[in-house]
Amino acid sequence: QVHLVESGGGSVQAGGSLRLSCTVSGDIWKKIIYCMAWLRQGPGQERETVAAIDADGDERYTRSVEGRFAISRDQSKNSLYLQMNNLKPEDTGRYYCALDATDDCFYSRHFSRGAESLFGYWGQGTQVTVSS
Fold first, then answer.
1. What single string gives the DSSP state of each residue in 36-69?
2. Tens of pLDDT along 11-40?
């Protein structure tokens, strides 16, 4: 049993920053294989993976956020984070934390179309709005 709960969304001006948090409760922290990720869905857009981290600490990002966003985790706090800097209006969307408890993170799988189906556990989402 795994439960995820996001927090930290809000409205900011372009160029601003936000840090999202996700509390991940359950047995997942005992595992040596998993992929924790942040996905977002803008208006009329498909849900896409923007950042992911696996049990080894390897980080992966979609090209549009690389250099601006940073994913991290803190097992002692049962938490996953997404630091978002230099936000742009196109970053607007609903952000979800999600967990694939069966595999490490792979660009070919977790950042491809249909990746949503790989994540068996989801938070409720938190809205991020960036205005110009």
1. EEEEEE-TT---EEEEEEETT--EEE-TTTTTTE
2. 999 999 999 999 999 999 999 999 999 999
